[in-house]
């Protein structure tokens, strides 16, 4: 029977290429940034084999040609067909302009010395873009003077240089430099605690997103999201692009919007952002510039818990294995950082420069995977759970409209019961058959929702694999970011719970004959 059922499976089934039932399962998903160090065929193939579930392409740096190369090599890699593709936007950033020393020397990496105690004028006059020096810096934000007041802080280059506003004049904003440091041109500018009026997307972002939709991206990591209206504007633009470029726009889901939280304004509007977005990224780089460093991890826990409570995926990112850009082994503190995120119940952890530009791209992926597996095994061993903290956030989020996924009441009840039944019968996995389009409450929005609800769990997140069966390759790729979910694409949905279980066995996801719980066609069955 298994052989007959296996013929239904997509011929490019990533999970069948790597039998998971013979090794510890990695429930936590890995998002790896692919860049110059890993974009070639062999290193990218090695990243997939090491456990990469989602390929991130950072459009702050990547060109369309580089994206196409990386996507082509990903899909050609064994197991790469089911790996999700994330387009990370540059976002509506505030940046310095060009330096005179760079223009005159022809050296783009030239720097100027900012000396503590001296004053610097921040100006929005474009004549200083390319003619800035240590006394006058161009900043590309026209509303700068109207947004700042004496005593406000301005951070340059991720806080490398800290300025304090002393006065605002007709010429610009006069600041005092608080620390001595060199700085290069076109570096980022942060205004901690200041509510800006930047648009949710820059013109570059719109061009990049439209390009991504044309080339079948699965999710957009939206940079510098500040509020729910920003997410809604991005979704409206995604819908326009989707309706224009998707081959079957009414039958395929939009790319997921993963809102990157990286400002104090976003933290203030966190609940409404969670309600509107499809998931969150804890973007600790810029966030750590905007808020005190000692608060980053506690905010990380808040964000992970809030997303788990409503069943939306969350990614913990930035400097997780930073030293592996140059070293073959991470520091003990980095191992603890990844472990801590897993214990928080995050859906995914992310690598940036480690896999994009480092000396050991695939090894950093494999290292992060092994840390995740070790943390998950310890959680099983001691029956560790962060559920008490997650449950404490549910009422607050529901009151603020931060509800979860699109489901009928009946399906929501079944999803909530699945993990409890699995625990009662000692199941090795939960198998979820994603309903066909015609049965969904909201066709585009609901695809994958049943599986995500099961992955959320009830009192605690399930510590066992969730096998998701779908006829949609797009749904499978989007589920690749959800904790514990192992998608299978089939040409025809199983007709019974027994057939669904056989598909999971045939795909080498489970030990043959092990007990499973199957959620299929509106019923929950233990086999």
Properties at a glance:
Pyruvate Kinase, Chain: A, domain 1, disordered N terminus, alpha/beta, elongated, TIM Barrel, 527 residues
Q: Under CATH, the topology of the largest domain is which?
A: TIM Barrel
Give the radius of gyration.
24 Å
- The first-level CATH class of the largest domain is given as Alpha Beta
Report the uncertain regions. 1-7, 10-22
- Based on CA inertia axes, which overall geometry fits? elongated
Mean pLDDT: 90
Overall CATH architecture of the largest domain: Alpha-Beta Barrel
Relative strand content: 15-25%
Helix/strand/pairing category:
alpha/beta
Classify the helix fraction into a percent range: 25-40%
Number of helices: 20
Largest sheet, strands/sense/barrel: 8 strands, parallel, barrel
Strand order of the largest sheet: 1-2-3-12-13-14-15-16
Query: Structurally, how many domains make up the residues?
Result: 3
End-to-end Cα distance:
16 Å
**Structure summary, number of beta strands:** 21
User: How would you name the CATH homologous superfamily of the largest domain?
Assistant: Phosphoenolpyruvate-binding domains
Describe the structure.
The protein has 527 residues and is α/β, with parallel strands linked by helices. Helices cover 38% and strands 18% of the residues. It has three domains: 24-92 and 199-388, TIM Barrel, CATH 3.20.20; 100-190, M1 Pyruvate Kinase, Domain 3, CATH 2.40.33.10; 405-526, Pyruvate kinase, C-terminal domain (Pyruvate Kinase, Chain: A, domain 1), CATH 3.40.1380. The protein has 20 helices and 21 strands. Strand 12 (219-222), helix 7 and strand 13 (256-261) form a beta-alpha-beta unit. Helix 7 runs parallel beside helix 9, helix 11 (296-310) packs across helix 15 (387-399) and helix 16 packs across helix 18. The chain is elongated. The protein starts with a helix and ends with a strand. 49% of the residues are buried. Residues 1-7 and 10-22 have low confidence and may be disordered. Its EC number is 2.7.1.40. Its cofactor is K(+).
